[in-house]
C-alpha cells in the first residue's frame, strides 16, 4: 500500500486527507500543523496522526493536550508522496526537504507552475504526471475552467476563449480577508493569472481572462465566451457536459439561480463539510450565438481540487495508467457525480 502524507492541514489539506483515507489503494500517514488550535485537536479526533511542522512547539501541543505522532520531517520520511497543502509561496521552502527525503510531492495552485515545471488536471494531462516526482494541481479556478472546457474542446474544438472570473473575497472562515464593500479588479492587469495557468494543463489553448474580487465567501463564479472551431448543435454541447463526471448542469428555474442556492444543494447532498466537488453550470446560460458558445458556472473553491489531488497521487505513484479509470475510482470512493 502506498503511503501519503498531507503537509498543511487547512482548507485543502483537511479535505485531501479524508479523500485519501477513502481510497483502497493508498494509505494516509498523517497530517501536519504548525499551531495547536482546534483544527489540530479535531484532526486527532478524526483519527489522523498529527505531526508538527515546528519541533520547538512540541510543548505547546503538549500543554494544549493535543497528542502528536512526531515531526513533519518524520512524517515525510515515512511517505511515498507528500501532498503539500501549505499556504501559497510556503511550498518552495519544502522542495529541498522532499528531494532530500527522496519522496514525491504534489503542490497546489498557490505555487507557480515553474516550481515543478509540471501541472496537473485529471481530464486534460494526467499522462504527463504519470511517474513524475513533482507536479502541481492547478488552482480551484483553473480546475473549474478545465473541467468544462476540455469536453467542449474534445467535441468541437475551441478557437478562442474569453472568461470573466468573479472571485470570492476569502474562504468562509477567513475573517481577515475582504473586500467587505467593494468590487476589486484582482489582478488589475489583464490577463489575470488564470488564462496562463489553464495553458499549463490545456496546452496551446487561446484564452484571455479578467478577474474581480467580490464580497462573498461561498464560491467563485465564471462567465465564459468560447469561439468554436467547428459547428455544433447546442444539444450536443449539453449532452457532452451532462455525460461528463465532475460537471453538473443545474437549472436556475429549479431554485438554483445563485451560488448561495448551489451551496444549499451541496448541503442537501449530505456530504462531509457540504462540499461540492463538481463544477455546476447554469444550464439556462448555455447558448451559441454566431459560432460562439456562452455559459456561466461556479466553483466551490474549498473542494473542487480535492479529487484531482487523489488522481495526481495515483498517476505519480503509477497506481493507474488510465486517467478515466482513476477518475472513476476516485469518484466512486468520494460519492462524486
Ligand atoms: N482555499 C482555497 O480556496 C484554495 C486554495 N488552493 C491552494 O491550496 C494551498 C493551500 O491553501 P489553503 O488550504 O487555503 O491554506 P490554509 O491556510 O487553509 O492551510 C494551510 C495549512 O498549512 C499549514 N502551514 C502554514 N505554514 C506552514 C509552514 N511554514 N509549513 C508547513 N505547514 C504550514 C497551516 O497550519 P497552521 O494552521 O497550523 O499554521 C495550515 O494547516 C495554497 O497553495 C492555495 O493557493 C487551491 C484551491 C483553492
Ligand atoms: O487558487 C485559488 O484561486 P485562484 O485560482 O483565483 O488563484 C483559491 O481560491 C485561493 O485563492 P486566494 O489566493 O484568493 O486565497
From TrEMBL:
Residues at which NAD(+) binds: 11-12, 110, 168, 301
UniProt keyword annotations, A-Z: Cytoplasm, Glycolysis, NAD, NADP, Oxidoreductase
Predominant location: cytoplasm
Domain Glyceraldehyde 3-phosphate dehydrogenase NAD(P) binding, chain residue ranges per copy: 1-140
Pfam families for this protein: DapB_N, Gp_dh_C
Enzyme class: oxidoreductase
Cellular-component GO terms for this entry: cytoplasm
EC number(s) reported in the record: 1.2.1.59
CDD domains, per database record: GAPDH_II_C (cd18127), GAPDH_II_N (cd02278)
UniProt keyword Acyltransferase present: no
Subunit structure: Homotetramer.
Name under which the protein is recorded: Glyceraldehyde-3-phosphate dehydrogenase
Gene: gap
